[in-house]
Amino acid sequence: MLRRSLQVRTIQASLQIEGNTLTEEQVTAVLEGRPVVAPERDLREVRNAIACYEKMPKWKPGSSKHLLAAHKIMMAGLVERPGAWRSRGVGIAKGNQIAHVAPPAARVPALMEDLLTWVGADEEVPLPIRAAVCHYEMEFIHPFEDGNGRMGRLWHSLILLQHHSLFAQVPVESVIRDRQADYYEVLGQCDRAGKSTAFVEFALEQTLAALKMVTGLPQGRMGAEERVAAARQQFGRNAFSRKDYMALLPGLSPATASRDLQSAVVSEVLEREGDKATARYRFAAKS
Asked: What residues contact 19, with CB distance under 8 A and at least 6 apart?
């Protein structure tokens, strides 16, 4: 139920940014197959997005083939050529002025191939940063006739999902929707500056805010008991590794993570299987 609720929030938020009128209650009804009275295009956008997000775990973020397949589902019945790169030049208007002129259409395939290859191969750059850079560059390149914004946010979420399974439950799109004016403003700042630094910082801030919405992590410094309690909330009775524990608590050192886990094992809050690199932890049933 939590996953479905978050899926609804994600889809509704991403589409609302693009002007879709359906509420979360209406998106839920569409997901459940119940009739909804709304503009046909809005309903089509929601049905397409539901199908797209359901397939998301099967796609690889470094694959242009998968990106095109995702666009074909997301934009089916909404554009003339879903699942294809744009074939003509495009400018983004803001009021009566052109705010951004995208690269020529002939360059789009090569630019996108370079971007996605980097996303899938550059292990030196952390995945949350790669997600933000990819999102911005997709907005800059504007590779599709339409649907670039929702595809940029979809691919951003997909890359985060590769970083940690927790991101399947993190509504990054909802947080961006709540700061929509800032979202567009920082995109414009990056265009004028010729680099994506400001957008990366903005995206990381929104990712952290979304994580805190899901995990309930407090704003201030956490003690060992609070960290272990946060892990219990996330993992329940599922087994997890020290790496999983550290991913849940950004900035935690390996030594501190080991001390937390060892202390919880000694106090019988946690059960441990294996040793050192192979160790897996599980919260005791009666702890």
From this structure: none
- What is the residue-averaged pLDDT of the chain? 88
199 with 62, same domain? Answer: yes
Q: pTM for the whole thing? A: 0.72
Domain that holds residue 254: 224-283
Q: Each residue of 210-219: pLDDT tens digit?
A: 787 766 655 4
- Show which of 165, 180, 215 is a domain's final residue: 215
Tell whether the torsion through CA atoms of 180, 47, 215 and 148 is positive or negative: negative
pLDDT digits (tens, 9 = 90+) for 153-169: 999 999 988 877 777 77
With a CB cutoff of 8 Å and minimum separation 6, the contacts of 10 are 53, 157, 171, 172, 173, 174
Which of these, 104, 42, 117, 52, lies nearest to 82 by C-alpha position? 52
The whole-number average pLDDT for the span 95-114 is 87
Whether residues 231 and 119 share a domain: the answer is no
What is the tens place of the pLDDT at every residue in 246-255? 888 877 888 8
**Is residue 266 assigned to a domain?**
yes
Higher confidence at residue 170 or residue 57?
57
Q: Which of residues 215, 233, 266 is at a domain's end?
A: 215
Judge whether 269 lies within some domain. Answer: yes
Check if the beta carbon of residue 22 is closer than 8 Å to that of residue 12.
yes
Residue 167 three-state SS: helix
60, 66 Cβ separation under 8 angstroms: yes
164 and 62 within one domain: yes
